[in-house]
Write a structure and sequence with these properties.
This is Serine threonine-protein kinase. This protein has 321 residues and is α+β, with helices and mostly antiparallel strands. It contains eight helices and 14 strands. Helix 6 packs antiparallel against helix 8. The chain is globular and about 55 Å long. The N and C termini lie far apart (82 Å).
Length: 321
């Protein structure tokens, strides 16, 4: 009663303060559903109108929980990953459709944006403090890139971000598979040299764009380069014409579109920041990083060279007859 009495006092100074929206407003306990309206409560309302109101309320609530509300609160796994279920909601806005991938940072889920009616990819960062801090740095980088890249053709575009149950969630546009995933599903067969040239031109342009903004990616690899489209075509593979046609080895897949975008800016470093001792995934790590001589923009260029050689080369997997 005391709290209610204080709240009812007129405080002119307090009322002028800006109101902040609750940070996790979608996680507050669900409101008690309004009681069904008896048909005889108001004489002025028709019975049909009462029935329509009751039907609407019953369709919105199931056992006291809003239909589009978040699932019941559950703990994370032992590594701090968010535990989810297909078909559940990630806040009332995003419906979980599928799991796209997982890494040391957390998980990437394919979701349906109920507000914009489009598929999106949501990166759910682990609930550990160091990963949360890294996620906030990545958000800053993504916003800088989006502001500078008005065409949105070089780097993945951030749609939104929010803090959900102690997990930083970053909403991205939905793109196709990574170059690594495409190679793996294609039995690690190399790309034609003309396609590699097109990919190289876009990759170099994107890296130069980042360097102009005084940003160093530091983790360029096929896993962090995504095709914009998932569509592909089957073409004859002339290197394996001697094989039997029964195993389908006479054909390989090629992407319909060569358009690519860079992703994963969690390790991106500003030029003026202190540079950590070791960067880049081992297979794409520049010699100056390995030798501990200090690194800068050229470490990205070394990674680009390693990627292009890999795309052109025939893996040992595809040499098995």
């Amino acid at each position: 009663m005391e709290t209610q009495w204080i709240a009812e006092l007129p405080h002119a100074a307090t009322d002028k303060r800006p109101r902040k929206r609750p940070r996790l407003a979608w996680d507050v306990p669900p409101p008690i559903p309004p009681p069904m309206v008896p048909l005889t409560l108001y004489c002025g309302m028709e019975a049909a109108q009462m029935a329509t109101m009751n039907q609407h309320l019953q369709s919105f609530y199931y056992g006291g929980v809003p239909r589009y509300g978040s699932p019941p609160w559950r703990g994370d796994d032992k590594d701090g990953h968010y535990i989810f279920g297909i078909g559940e909601n990630l806040t009332p806005r995003y419906r979980i459709l599928n799991k796209m991938g997982e890494g040391t940072f957390g998980q990437v889920l394919e979701c349906w944006d109920l507000e914009n009616k489009e598929p999106v990819a949501i990166k759910i960062v682990r609930s550990l403090q160091k990963y949360r801090e890294a996620a906030m740095i990545e958000i800053d980088v993504l916003q800088r890139l989006a502001k500078a890249d008005r065409s949105g053709t070089r780097c993945v575009q951030i749609r939104n971000w929010f803090d959900y149950r102690n997990h930083i969630c970053i909403v991205f546009e939905k793109l196709g598979p990574s170059l690594y995933d495409f190679l793996r599903r294609n039995s690690y067969r190399s790309f034609p040299i003309d396609l590699v040239r097109e990919l190289a031109g876009q990759l170099l342009e994107s890296v130069a764009f980042m360097h102009d903004l005084r940003l160093i990616h530091t983790d360029l690899k096929p896993e962090n380069i995504l095709l914009v489209s998932s569509e592909y075509v089957k073409v004859p593979d002339h290197k394996f014409l001697s094989r039997s046609a029964k195993d389908g080895s006479l054909f390989k897949n090629l992407p319909k579109s060569s358009a690519i975008k860079l992703i994963d800016f969690g390790s991106t470093t500003f030029e003026h920041q202190d540079h950590s001792y070791v960067v880049s995934t081992r297979h794409y790590r520049a010699p100056e990083v390995i030798l501990g001589l200090g690194w800068n923009y050229p470490c990205d260029m070394w990674s680009v060279g390693c990627i292009l050689v890999e795309l052109c080369s025939v893996s040992s997997f595809s040499l098995i007859i």
